[in-house]
Write a structure and sequence with these properties.
The complex is a heterodimer of chains A (475) and B (300).
Chain A: H1 10-18, H2 21-44, H3 48-64, H4 66-79, E1 83-87, H5 90-103, E2 108-111, H6 115-119, H7 122-128, E3 132-135, H8 138-146, H9 162-172, H10 185-202, E4 205-208, E5 212-214, E6 219-224, H11 228-234, E7 238-244, E8 248-249, H12 252-266, E9 274-278, E10 292-298, H13 302-305, H14 321-324, H15 327-332, H16 343-354, H17 356-359, H18 371-375, H19 382-395, H20 401-414, H21 417-434, E11 440-441, H22 448-451, E12 456-457, H23 464-474
Parallel strand pairs in A: 1-10, 2-3, 2-4, 4-7, 5-8, 7-10
Antiparallel strand pairs in A: 5-6, 6-9, 11-12
Chain B: H1 3-15, H2 22-34, H3 42-45, H4 49-62, E1 66-70, H5 76-86, E2 92-95, H6 99-102, E3 112-115, E4 124-128, E5 131-133, E6 138-142, H7 150-153, E7 157-163, E8 167-168, H8 171-182, E9 190-194, E10 199-200, E11 207-209, E12 216-222, H9 226-229, E13 249-251, H10 252-255, H11 277-284
Parallel strand pairs in B: 1-12, 2-3, 2-4, 4-7, 5-8, 7-12, 11-13
Antiparallel strand pairs in B: 5-6, 6-9, 10-11
Classes of the chains: A alpha/beta (475), B alpha/beta (300).
Chain lengths: 475, 300
């Protein structure tokens, strides 16, 4: 099975997204909701900025000693009766999971929300092995019914409206009375709760992700609001944790620091409803909990990132604050990015994981406004990292011919300062004249791609160089 | 090379390390042994014991949990029976074998009390908390026969008995207690931090209460000193402040069709709680939760 992505078609994807009225309506919920909530939560905690520094430092420290913390973590999991499996590639990770399912004769698997599972396309592998995966997070459940991919790493169905979800439920839950009222969103949730309750109780294996792994104790941590992750890992007889190697933190104290910034950055909550620390399988005397506890540690390119200029990306704790604050994400949504991770974090991570040849377009989808970096709880310099990718893309001659010839043309003028000044002055003067009064263009020859979805501002007040010279004179 | 060796070799190549360097190992060993605490919120650390408990109650209520304070542990069964009756629930519950719950005078009530794990047929589960965190109004429960994890998750109504002396300022304070109980570097199978009842905001970012876990979280706080200090409770002690209700909060409590026999009035004389469930949630919900903003522009 090969990875499915449409990242190379980012431009076409974005174009479609901009002309999809239902998507545009749904995307309004990103901008109106997340930003104000994060702001409020951050403002309520005077230590929030200091905690961001602390979170950054903890991750940097762990990454610099990752081999040693992994060793300590592995020893603790084993001591608690759990099993650690190492998966260098996505394919390896899926195989480890399907092998465990086959060994115990599993028919169904209850799944908590896991982006690693999306990254390795686990569901397709499970189905191929005759095991039925059931997504239990409300958003992921809807995604699975629709055969789609999440469009957001925290809110997977942020691209959908309730009427779309209602028609999916009517299509799939066909054993329920057709005349039932599903108009209100709470009816949709109540129906999903009822349907999934039975699946939790019947599942043979529970699979969850991990927000953090703790070296001190061999503990995996999940954070949810619905409680589905807890049911997935408590009721079935086997619990499998899917985690990538950079999820590690040294101690429970360090995990607590990270948890203080995670929910506030993600949903604006003081803390999520359920934060669950799991260590090994059922203990002697326990009356519930899984009999087997497995951790699958995925590398999939991360150990290589550790040695290069993208190491800082490994600090990411997947809170989604960067995409929640991104004007490009607000405009095109998550699916346009064409793979598992959208928004600024995806634009940096995806080229590392699937290759700059396939995802090199993504770092170009940025206005470099810097909002992502300004809200990142672990202070990842996302714009700088996107610039690194642009440089690499150019070096490897992966930029499209139009960009290269455009830059060449610009280079021709830039090497001839007098000609440059003349040309910019003439071009600007013409545009200013044409745009006089309105201040902006709705259409512009040769710039239809720009003006189709936004106006082009008309220039005013002289070229940059002219203004700069005037300012220097005044000073 | 095994997959394990391969990953370790790649990491070490990237870090330019052999993995054997003494100073690196020392740094890691020290960190694991000393466990530096980092930044702690003053809202919780700079509080007297009384203020800490008040902060816990305020934060728990902001998360849509309900809190009832009783002066002594013997009052807990009556308080629990009242809670069930107020919500029109049958006088039945399930608990673990925790001696703190076992020794309660259940016989003073008409409650039918079962023990053991839940298989999903219980309307109410009762647990004894290991501790709690004032900082965010979070309950801390540990797994085991005493308090089976399934009781935290499957019953619609989760009732937690908490001793006020177990309310800590920060998460870190609770980790110290976990280490005292289970040994340094060891953990019970599961530690659950629970802050409010289950919810989801996946549909249009509208906050809906009552997703897969309990739809109500009720805390019975055993606080012998509460009566003496209650009137002078300092509202300025709480940083969150009381905030206006969210514009739109839904709950599956209203939407779910009642299963026959599950929510019958305990006492035919007793009128159902007149207060509307949704209103109750609106009032208690702090605005820091992921509710939607505009009530909804969709649906003709």
């Amino acid at each position: 099975m090969t990875a499915h992505f449409t990242s190379p078609a980012f431009k076409e994807n974005a174009h479609q997204a901009l002309h999809d009225p239902a998507l545009q309506r749904a995307l309004g919920n990103v901008e109106s909701g997340f930003i104000a909530k994060r702001r409020k939560a951050a403002d309520k905690l005077p230590e929030f900025e200091a905690l961001r520094d602390s979170a950054r430092d903890i991750k940097n420290h762990t990454l610099a000693h990752l081999d040693l913390y992994l060793e300590a973590y592995e020893a603790k999991v084993t001591a608690a009766g759990g099993h650690v499996h190492f998966a260098p590639t996505a394919e390896d990770a899926s195989k480890i999971v399907t092998d465990i399912c086959r060994r115990i004769g599993a028919r169904t698997v209850a799944k908590g929300k896991s982006m690693i599972s999306e990254e390795i396309e686990l569901n397709a592998h499970l189905e191929a092995a005759g095991v039925k995966p059931i997504e239990t997070d409300l958003g992921e459940y809807i995604i699975q019914l629709r055969g789609e991919r999440p469009s957001h790493i925290v809110a997977p169905v942020i691209h959908l409206n309730r009427d779309q979800i209602e028609s999916d439920f009517r299509r799939v839950h066909s054993d329920l009375p057709a005349e039932r009222d599903l108009h209100a969103p709470e009816s949709l949730l109540a129906e999903a709760r009822g349907v999934l309750r039975q699946k939790f109780l019947a599942a043979d294996v529970g699979i969850t992700g991990a927000n953090f792994l703790v070296a001190e104790t061999g503990t995996s941590i999940i954070v949810t609001n619905e409680g589905n992750g807890d049911l997935s890992q408590t009721l079935p007889r086997v619990h499998i944790v899917l985690a990538s190697i950079e999820k590690l933190v040294p101690t429970l104290e360090d995990a607590s620091q990270m948890l203080r910034v995670l929910a506030r950055s993600a949903t604006g909550q003081e803390i999520s409803v359920y934060t669950t620390f799991s260590t090994g399988p059922r203990r002697p005397g326990d009356v519930d909990g899984p009999e087997e506890y497995h951790v699958v540690l995925l590398d999939n390119g991360r150990s290589a990132m550790l040695g290069g200029e993208f190491r800082e990306m490994l600090r990411c704790i997947r809170c989604a604050a960067c995409m929640n604050h991104c004007p490009v994400y607000h405009a095109v949504g998550g699916h346009a990015y064409g793979w598992v991770y959208p928004g600024p974090m995806g634009s940096v991570l995806s080229p590392s994981l699937i290759g700059v040849d396939k995802a090199g377009h993504l770092p170009n989808a940025s206005t470099f406004c810097g909002r992502c970096e300004s809200v990142c709880p672990v202070r990842i310099p996302l714009p700088k990292l996107m610039r690194h990718w642009r440089e690499r893309e150019f070096e490897r001659h992966l930029s499209p011919a139009t960009v290269r010839s455009g830059l060449k043309l610009w280079g021709f003028f830039a090497r001839r300062p007098r000609l440059y000044r003349l040309a910019t002055r003439a071009g600007m003067g013409a545009l200013a004249l044409l745009g006089r009064g309105k201040g902006r263009f709705r259409t512009l020859p040769f710039a239809g791609g720009w003006t189709a979805t936004r106006d082009f501002a008309a220039p005013e007040g002289g070229t940059f160089q002219a203004q700069w010279a005037a300012r220097k004179e005044r000073a | 090379m095994t997959p394990r060796e391969q990953i370790f070799a790649n990491i070490r190549r990237s870090l330019g390390s052999s993995g054997a360097e003494r100073p690196r190992r020392m740094i890691v060993e020290e960190r694991l042994a000393q466990r530096p605490a980092g930044v702690l919120p003053a809202r919780a650390t700079q509080k007297s014991a009384r203020e800490r408990i008040a902060l816990f109650v305020e934060m728990a209520e902001a998360s849509a949990a309900t809190v009832e304070t009783v002066p002594a542990v013997e009052h807990a069964p009556t308080a629990i029976a009242e809670f069930l009756r107020a919500h029109n629930l049958a006088p039945r519950l399930r608990r673990g074998t925790d001696p703190r719950l076992g020794s309660l005078p259940w016989e003073r009530t008409a409650l039918e009390v079962a023990t053991g794990r839940s298989f999903g047929d219980d309307a109410a589960g009762v647990s004894a908390a290991f501790g709690a965190v004032a900082e965010t109004g979070t309950l801390v429960l540990v797994s085991g026969e005493d308090n089976p994890t399934t009781l935290n998750l499957l019953p619609d109504n989760h009732i937690v008995v908490l001793d006020a002396s177990d309310v800590a300022a920060t998460y870190e304070d609770v980790w110290d207690r976990v280490r005292d109980r289970f040994g340094a570097g060891a953990m019970p199978r599961t530690v659950n931090w629970i802050t409010g009842p289950s919810r989801s905001a996946d549909i249009e970012q509208i906050l809906l209460m009552g997703a897969h876990g309990p739809r109500r979280l009720h805390i019975v706080l055993i606080d012998p000193e509460a009566a003496a200090t209650e009137p002078v409770e300092d509202s300025a002690a709480a940083p969150a402040g009381s905030t206006p209700a969210e514009p739109r909060v839904g709950s599956t409590l209203a939407a779910d069709p009642k299963k026959p026999g599950e929510e019958k009035p305990a006492d035919p004389e007793q009128k159902p709680d007149p207060e509307d469930e949704d209103e109750e949630l609106d009032e208690s919900l702090d605005e820091s939760f992921p509710a939607s903003d505009p009530p909804s522009q969709t649906q003709p």
